[in-house]
Amino acid sequence: MAPGRRTPQLRRGRSAARGNAVNDRLLRILLRRRKHALSAADVTVTDRPQVRRAVSAAALGNTMEWFDFGVYAYLAGTLGKVFFPASSPGAQVVSTFATFAAAFLVRPLGGLVFGPLGDRIGRKRVLAATMIMMAISTFAVGFLPTYAAIGFAAPLLLLVCRLVQGFSTGGEYAGATTYIAEYAPDRRRGFLGSWLDFGTFVGYSLGSGLVTVLTAVLGDDGMTGWGWRLPFLVAGPLGLIGLYMRLHLEETPAFEREAAAAREEAEKIRSAGGDDPVEVARQSGHGRLKEIFTRHWQAVLICMGLVLLYNVTNYMVTSYLPTFMSETLHQDALTAQLLVLGTMIVVVLTITTVGRTSDRWGRRPVFMAGSIALILLAAPAVLLIRAGGIALPAFGCLILGLLLVCFAGTSAATLPALFPTRLRYGALSIAFNISVSLFGGTTPLFASALVQATGDTMVPAYYLMVAGLIGLVATFFLRETAGKPLRGSGPMVETKEQARQLVARSRTQAGRRARDLWIRLRHPWAR
């Protein structure tokens, strides 16, 4: 062979060697990326006193909101006589619940305003604003003149107060849920989130309990004359306490990280020569709304289904059941109020246990079991309530209460986990309030109207069964999030030792993933 000439076999061998070297470099790059593990900076160690303050302040706002709901539900018959005296008793109830439902029609507007605002300026500022609006509007109801004093203007003023309440509530529950979820350690998010709805039912129990006591002391004439004002006037001091607690809160770690990353990205863009129009549009309110409905529409639908399940059950039991038992079934009003109040106490006593159970078993199993049980047990529960007396209706109310607590103890940990941090408040506000407005808050109105139109007192059971079916479908598509970090956020733990263990476990798992990948690519025969 002439000197300097290479054989084809030699050229092919050197080409293969160069190809193998390139492949090895690419493989090493891939392995480095695959081997990425958590660092100590990626894990947030929560501060227990801060977590307690966050949970307490958020739950107190819900207590305030549901104190008003409890008062309004238990005073539905009385308010009908005060503000709609010219109507028949049945029409008075429907008119009162129509005013109740009107507040829910503006809740999506409140969600559209407060939700994206909370994602841009922070959770705690918006929560303070919603607390002020709720307290003032509820307090103002206690000073409204009656129909006998100013005629048709009286129900209009009541409607205005309810609309302000509904608008502020549009940013309340989603914000409080987001706030607690972003402060809670991953392993205890269900338990800590359940305290938010614990505040819900404590507020309802306080409101309904106060009305029950006043009714027993003052009688129907005293309540119609002036006693109905007293529960609304209590909202003023409650609102001041809640506002004080919320003004002393700190912003959530997840939002602070997201805001810092956004500022860093904006600084890079400015240093590179100006604002990026694409990024500016993405960060705007319109851009965030577009992203919610184009990239996260599945999560929005799942959220709406779960919210429908929870809130139809909730408002059926808390807002409609007392009036259904007294006005439709003609049972003793005080007995009906005491039975529903007892049901709420059962919910309060069991709700944190359900939240802790969802941390251990998962959110999906709790929602799934509750949905199936609602479909099967709604009709027997309503039949027991219709039976009359005390024992059987009490058992029927207990069944509905235990079904309700399955959803109430799990929702606050489940719903925020559906959305990433930068869109969480806005997306949850919009999805939650649309569902509540269309299906939850209208439950007393539709149920009372259907019962009056058809004469069928089993309508509440049918309504609950449909809600259970929709919730079951939504739960089927729900991904399990118990014990996992929120979307767009790093892990949250309670102690530094847990953080060290999590980082060490992450490095071990990353090393195993890299080893398995190397074996699959370089030694496929070793599988």
Word description of this protein:
This protein has helices spanning 8-34, 48-74, 76-83, 89-105, 107-121, 123-141, 147-150, 153-169, 172-183, 189-227, 229-233, 235-247, 253-271, 277-283, 285-295, 297-328, 333-361, 363-386, 391-414, 424-440, 443-454, 459-476, 496-522; strands spanning 44-45, 492-493. The protein has 527 residues and is mainly α. It has a two-stranded parallel ribbon. Helix 2 (48-74) runs antiparallel to helix 9, helix 2 (48-74) runs parallel beside helix 10 and helix 16 runs antiparallel to helix 17. The longest helix has 39 residues, at 189-227. The chain is globular and about 85 Å long. The protein starts with 7 loop residues before the first helix and ends in a 5-residue tail after the last helix. The mean pLDDT is 82.
Q: What's the gyration radius in Å?
A: 28 Å
Uncertain runs with pLDDT below 50, 5 residues or more? none
Cα separation of the termini: 44 Å
What fraction of the residues are assigned to beta strands by DSSP? under 5%
SSE order in H/E notation?
Answer: HEHHHHHHHHHHHHHHHHHHHHHEH
Principal-axes shape call: globular
Figure out the total of helices.
Answer: 23
Number of strands: 2
Describe the sheet with the most strands.
2 strands, parallel
Structural class: mainly alpha
Provide the residue-averaged pLDDT: 82
User: What topology, given as strand order, has the largest sheet?
Assistant: 1-2
Helix coverage percent of residues? Answer: over 70%
